[in-house]
Automatic annotation (TrEMBL):
The keyword Oxidoreductase applies. Keywords: 4Fe-4S, Iron, Iron-sulfur, Metal-binding, Molybdenum, Oxidoreductase. InterPro entries: Asp_de-COase-like_dom_sf, MopB_CT_YdeP, MoPterin_dinucl-bd_dom, Mopterin_OxRdtase, Mopterin_OxRdtse_a_bac, Prok_molybdopt-oxidoreductase, YdeP_MopB. SUPFAM superfamilies: ADC-like, Formate dehydrogenase/DMSO reductase, domains 1-3. Residues 185-566 form the Molybdopterin oxidoreductase domain. This is FdhF/YdeP family oxidoreductase. Belongs to the prokaryotic molybdopterin-containing oxidoreductase family. PANTHER family: PROTEIN YDEP, RESPIRATORY NITRATE REDUCTASE. It comes from Hymenobacter duratus. Its cofactor is Mo-bis(molybdopterin guanine dinucleotide); [4Fe-4S] cluster. Gene3D superfamilies: 2.40.40.20, 3.40.50.740, Dimethylsulfoxide Reductase, domain 2 (3.40.228.10).
Length: 851
């Protein structure tokens, strides 16, 4: 058993000397240990789901029914359109990063935050989960979006009691999401009591007691929902799930349910682990990289540096996406401006070409596209036996190949071309790039996972990797690119509504209680339960479920039905305003804040997209106020709620020294043995990853090919219907809006836009910048949002795209991906018409609400 550093006060909160020489070198396979990594994926994904209908809300008229707006206000901000960008990053990205950083946190505070972000002795970026280099790290190891996220965290403005005294909830809801975020850091615990229309101050002990009273008054622990944001580090995530389970429920929905749940559902039964199998060094070594349903230029900008390095090493890149994105076109690396030998070329040239072949697939057509590529590969194998398909790998490591092969060969070219919109000849070009290569990596993100066939599409990705033997060796494997900084780590820590018995038993043994086995609510099921009045308490640890989830007005109505809503956060967002009868707003530290506890300066940890766990140690003095760490907040709630049902001394010890938390984790979760020691290594440590070493921990010990069914959903469409997918703008990360611009797509000063194919616009009598209304259609239900601006764009005919959260009210709560239960935000059937001057509620109703 590991000896805790708490036994030696001199070690508590300290770090070993940082030596870059201790880190793995590029090209080396990391030491990841022998223990199997935890694989928390449910064996019965369709169990216990509520299939009953939910009456669709009146989305268009909700603004007249409820004075506190759940949807962003419709006021337009003055759109300006330019040509879409051909190059990502460059000088503009540097300038924008500095402007935003200094405007939010000031010159000294902002600069200190940037220079310590993603460093081995600093803090983890609170934005995306892209990994940091194992060895050398640049002085500026961040991207534009990371700079914005850290600047927002470092904000030196305060949204304290005076701010909430000046603004009612209704007034705050009429602010844009950007202005809410820019109001400043939350600094004091606040309460909204029944009948109040303002938040007002409350002491921390009283806040904890309010939560305890409401939780302990429930008829069942399952009447509470505990939601987690992917921004939450490992240590508070572990405590949050521990508290929920000691309280008696597995109602632990999280943001992963809405993004990469489809990846886990596909990877666990096929490869034995619901995570990717590659490292950052593998990206550098790959011969071919496929990027499917992902826009790294906006969502994971540091990935472009890795792709640039891969290109310089000779890699070919195939991009598959309905929208032509700047980051998949050319990339100017801001780091090159620091190199005198590269600076002039970086300034004057077009940057590094990223994509060798761009396949502009129709929305939801990726599965058919992959089948087309594999069908070509089988035909090439027929002409060149043993040269295209890795039959030796297949024979030794896999099962199910024969059925899979027959399924691909039997798929007609007519179906493939109809569904994906790419010609047979273009698919042949992609297949030829793959045919003779063995070092192949496929990357994907929510453009795949949020499709109706998202799980099955990822299974086809796995099929492609397996038929090429492109897994479990350097330069090859699967790469689901996670979104938020610790969304993968939260799942590893046990934030999961359907945990394994082994995990629950280990947790119960460590803390001397019986952890519940009954499966809880995932995000979609939690929203349904709240809406139907089956729950009474919602506790959100970070995040903004209202803006992140589908069917915005359904979520809002569910929140209003709660007896208590609790929001732990750093800055104001719209989700804090749609509340239960009583609501608490509890301010916490960010990744960048110094967290001082009794034993000293604390650090937490995060797990990135490639399974590296590294330290997170804040460097900025928190603003003056009463903010607490997430660990301290959870411990305070647990002690007040559980009382003698828990070991109070243990919660106190874990709050005073986070090493104690890691000691517990080391004994509960495989792969975290000697956690405290390994976390203090420069750059952290790799978790065990079976597929990376061709150790497939499936029930049969093999990697499993999948025989999928190709659905023809597009044939169900009416002649005037289109398929909508939601996306982020460039000045946005997840639900946080930094500004109204999307410069890579040429859109400025507006977010209520719908990107449309010019031919689709002409057929509907719509011109550029016309105001339009959008209606979604699902099983006879309709939902309408008004006053969007039509923007002509290079997108396949029959497809349209809009930003979330503005378009989320169109996404039906019951429309989910098979198996994963992920909302289908990348497949929403819509119709589009010009906005009528007489739309909306009757004038009497509007005047009544405005009054």
């Amino acid at each position: 058993m590991e000896e805790s550093p708490v036994a030696d006060p001199n070690k508590a909160g300290k770090q070993h000397e940082q030596k870059a020489s201790n880190a793995p070198k590029s090209g080396e396979r990391p030491d990841q240990g022998e223990a199997p990594a935890p694989d928390h994926y449910r064996p019965d994904p369709q169990a216990a789901r509520d299939e009953s209908n939910i009456t669709p809300p009146d989305v268009a008229n909700a603004k007249y029914t409820h004075p506190i707006l759940a949807q962003p206000p419709e006021a337009l901000t003055g759109i300006r359109l330019e040509e879409r960008a051909k190059v990502a990053a460059g000088v503009t990205a540097v300038i924008k990063s500095m402007e935003f950083s200094w405007s939010e946190g000031g010159l000294n505070r902002g600069t200190r935050g940037l220079l310590k972000m993603n460093q081995k002795d600093g803090f983890d970026c609170s934005s995306c989960a892209w990994p940091d280099p194992d060895d050398h790290r640049s002085v500026a190891e961040f991207c534009e979006n990371g700079a914005k996220a850290t600047a927002s965290d470092a904000d030196d403005k305060a949204a304290g009691p005076e701010f909430f005294a000046r603004h009612s909830l209704a007034q705050l809801s009429k602010m844009t999401d950007r202005d809410q975020n820019n109001a400043g850091r939350l600094t004091h615990p606040m309460v909204k009591r029944p009948g109040d229309n303002h938040y007002s101050p409350i002491t921390w002990p009283d806040a904890f007691q309010v939560i305890a009273d409401h939780l302990n008054a429930l008829d069942s622990p399952n009447e509470a929902v505990f939601y987690t944001s992917g921004k939450v580090p490992n240590e508070p995530a572990f405590l949050f799930q521990l508290f929920a389970k000691q309280f008696g429920t597995n109602n632990l929905p999280d943001c992963s349910n809405m993004c990469h749940e489809s990846s886990g559902a596909a990877l666990s039964p096929t490869l034995g682990l619901g995570k990717g199998s590659v490292t950052l060094n593998d990206i550098y070594e790959a011969e071919v990289i496929l990027i499917i349903g992902q826009n790294p230029g906006t969502n994971h900008p540091r990935m472009l540096s890795a792709l640039q390095k891969a290109k310089r090493n000779g890699a070919k890149i195939i991009s598959i996406n309905p929208l032509i994105e700047a980051g998949l076109n050319h990339f100017k690396n801001p780091q090159d401006f620091m190199n005198p030998l590269k600076a002039l070329g970086a300034l004057m040239g077009d940057g590094t070409p990223i994509t060798d072949l761009y396949l502009q697939v129709r929305v939801d057509g990726d599965m058919a596209l992959l089948r087309g590529i594999m069908k070509h590969l089988f035909e090439a194998e027929d002409l060149n036996p043993g040269q295209v398909v890795d039959r030796a790998f297949i024979a030794e490591y896999t099962t199910g190949f024969e059925s899979f092969e027959q399924n691909i060969r039997n798929t007609s070219w007519e179906d493939i071309e109809e569904l994906n919109g790419i010609s047979r000849a273009q698919l042949l070009e992609a297949a030829n790039m793959l045919a003779t290569k063995k070092k192949i990596i496929t990357c994907w993100a929510m453009g795949v996972t949020q499709q109706r066939q998202g799980v099955q599409t990822i299974q086809e990705i796995v099929n492609l990797q397996l038929m090429k033997g492109a897994i479990g060796k350097p330069g090859a494997g699967t790469c689901p690119v996670r979104g938020h900084s610790n969304v993968q780590g939260d799942r590893t820590m046990g934030i999961w509504e359907q945990p394994t018995k082994a995990f629950q038993d280990a947790l119960g043994k460590e803390f001397n209680f019986q952890a519940p086995y009954e499966h809880g609510y995932d995000t979609v099921e939690a929203i349904k339960a709240m809406y139907k009045g089956k729950t009474k308490v919602y506790f959100g640890l970070g995040g903004n479920l209202l803006a992140a989830g589908p069917d915005t007005e359904v979520i809002a109505e569910g929140m209003r039905k709660q007896k208590l809503t609790v929001f732990v956060g750093t800055k104001l967002n719209r989700g804090h305003l749609i509340t239960g009868e009583t609501s608490l707003l509890l301010p916490c530290f960010t990744h960048a804040d110094v967290d001082m506890q009794k034993s000293g300066h604390q650090m937490t940890s995060c797990e990135n997209s490639m399974g590296v766990v590294s330290q997170n140690k804040g460097v900025l003095i928190p603003l003056e106020g009463q903010m607490m760490s997430e660990v301290a907040i959870i411990s305070g709630v647990a002690i007040a709620t559980l009382g003698s049902r828990t070991n109070i001394a243990d919660w106190v010890a874990m709050t005073e020294n986070y090493d104690v938390i890691r000691d517990h984790i080391s004994r509960v979760i495989p792969g975290f043995e000697n956690f405290n020691e390994k976390l203090r290594r420069p750059g952290g440590f790799y978790l065990p990853n079976g597929p990376r070493d061709r150790k497939f921990t499936t029930p049969n010990g093999k990697a499993n090919f999948t025989t999928t069914e190709l659905q023809h959903y597009q044939r169900e469409l009416e002649p005037d219907q289109l398929i909508l997918m939601t996306v982020r703008s460039h000045d946005q990360f997840n639900t946080t809006i930094y500004d109204y611009n999307d410069r890579y797509r040429g859109v400025f000063n507006e977010r209520r836009v719908l990107f449309m194919n010019p031919q689709d616009m002409a057929e509907r009598g719509i011109s550029a910048k016309d105001l339009i209304d959008i209606t979604s259609h699902y099983k006879g239900e309709t939902r309408t949002v008004e006053k969007f601006v039509a923007v002509p764009y290079d997108i396949p005919k029959g497809n349209v795209s809009a930003y979330f959260p503005e378009a989320n009210p169109l996404v039906p709560i019951s429309s989910v991906a098979k198996t994963s239960n992920t909302p289908t935000s990348k497949y929403v059937v819509v119709t589009v018409v010009p906005t009528l001057k007489t739309t909306g509620a009757p004038i009497e109703q509007r005047l009544a609400v405005e009054a």
